């Protein structure tokens, strides 16, 4: 099965689409591959794409401190998920964060301008756009609630059970930052649960 058919099948789990709608939408998708440790989006840039990850892992992070040396990881995207500096995309304002490839990454991307065309000319585009926005919102809400209601150990366990094969590939310092602890504290958590 071709990757384009896989993408269509994914979207058709969200909403059925006619061949005409698929052709209109898919003709605007661009496949881009990035090597490991590349900044896909830098703070201060405007996000220009809504992307769907075919393969790889992305990390979303902020820099802070006197010389912005401290990095705070706040999200990851994996294969089979939407990936975007979404707040920057919808506002078309500069992003205050970075998006980096943790592994080699392949993305299927639609530009902001093409996305507006799809919204204007197809019903399926609106449904897919709404679904993407809803999924990104739900992930954000889930993360916020986890920081309010769960311990660092519980946050780590949820991450581990959700993507165990992938989590093992993420450097400890990024995982620690993501769950809100130091790398040393995460090492202690990992020892306790193993």
UniProtKB/TrEMBL annotation:
Annotated protein name in UniProt: cAMP-binding domain of CRP or a regulatory subunit of cAMP-dependent protein kinases
What InterPro entries does this protein's entry cite? cNMP-bd_dom, cNMP-bd_dom_sf, RmlC-like_jellyroll
Keyword Kinase attached: yes
Gene Ontology MF terms: kinase activity
Recorded hits in CDD domains, A to Z, give: CAP_ED
Task: List UniProt keywords, sorted A-Z.
Answer: Kinase, Transferase
Pfam families for this protein: cNMP_binding
Q: Which positions fall inside the Cyclic nucleotide-binding domain?
A: 32-120
Record's keyword annotation contains DNA-binding: no
